[in-house]
C-alpha cells in the first residue's frame, strides 16, 4: 500500500497509473464510437474543434467591425511573413482573406458554418464572419477586454497553414501540422508587434478562445498533466504532434504551449525539423517499382489510421476481410504488397483490418452494409468516418485495383500533379 506523503496526497502507484491508462483508452474508444454511430457532420476546417455556443449572435455592426480588424491583422501578418519566409528560404505570396456567411463553396470543397480554413488550391483563408465576430464578442464580454486577439489568433493559425503550403513542408510522416501552425501563429504575432510582448489580457483572450478550439484530452486529471510533462521533457511532441488530445489540434494546454513556443522563437524554429516535399507528378502505375517505396499499413488499427488521415488531409484506403480467409490472404500477397499499389503510398493512408479484431472496422462494415469477401473502401479525409467515396468488392489483380482507386483519387482531386500529394483535395465533398 502506498504511503501518504506529508502534504496529505497519496502518491500514485503503478496500479493507479495502469488503471488510469486503461480508463483513458476506454474513453478514447467510446469517443470514436460515438463519432461513428452519430455520423457527425463534416468539418474540414484546419482550425475548429468544438463549436461555440453564443448567448447572442453578433449583429451586422459587430460583424463589420470584426471584418475590419481581421483585414488589419492580415496586413500585419503579410508584412511579417516576407522576412519570416526569407529566413527559411521561401518566397511569400500573400493569401486572400475571404469571409462568408453560413457556408461557402471553395476550391477545396464546401465549408460549413463556424469554421475557418486555409485552402491550398486557391491560396485563400476562409472564415465564417459571424463565428469569428462571436469569438471576439465572447472574449470581450467575459474578460472586459477588446477581444481582438481571439479573432487575430484564429486567422494567424490559418496563416501558418498557408506558409506550410508555400514552403512545401512534408507532414506525411509527422503529426505536427496543426502544432506547427499554432507555433507559427505565435511567431508571426510576435513579429507584428515590433518587439512588444503580448499583454496578459491578450493572452487571456487566446486562452479563452482555446476553450472552443482545443480538443478534449485523452487523459484527464493529474495523470494527464504528468503525461504531458513527460512527453514535453522527452521531446515527443516535437516529432509526433500532440500527445494528449482526441484530435489533431491538441488540447488547451498543448495549444497554448505551442503558441508560447512561437512567441519566444521564430517561424524557422517552428518548422526546422520538417522536410520539404519534392513537387513531382504522382505516378499511378510506374513502369518500374520506385526504389524503397512501400505502404505503411495500419493493421487492425482503423481508428488510428483515420485520425492520421484526417490530420494530414489525405483519403483513407481501408481493406476489410477475414485475415484467415483464402481470399484475403491472396489479396494481401498479390495486391496489398504489390509495387503497383505502393505507388499510391504518398497519396493516401492505408489500413487493413479483420472486423473480428477491430471494433471500428466492424462497426463501419455494419453501417455500410458489407462483409464476407474482401472490400476496399476509399474514405474522404474528414470527421465523418462513413463518408465512403468508392468501393471495390471481391478479388481483383493489382493493376485493376490501382486503376480503380486512381480513377476516384483523380476525380476527387487528390492526384492533381501540380500540388503536393498531402495537400487538401480539389473538389466538392459530398
3D structure, described in words:
The protein is of the alpha/beta class and 430 residues long. 47% of the residues lie in helices and 10% in strands. It is built from 15 helices and ten strands. A five-stranded mixed β-sheet has the order 6-8-7-9-10, with helices on both faces. Helix 4 packs across helix 5. The longest helix has 28 residues. It is elongated and about 65 Å long. The protein starts with 13 loop residues before the first helix and ends in a 19-residue tail after the last helix. The N terminus and C terminus are likely disordered.
- What gap, in angstroms, lies between the N and C termini? 57 Å
Percent of residues in helices comes to 40-55%
Number of helices: 15
Question: Given the helix and strand composition, which structural class is it?
Answer: alpha/beta
What are the segments in which pLDDT stays under 50 over at least 5 consecutive residues?
1-14, 30-55, 278-292, 418-430
Strand order of the largest sheet: 6-8-7-9-10
Radius of gyration: 23 Å
- The share of residues in extended strands comes to 5-15%
Mean pLDDT: 75
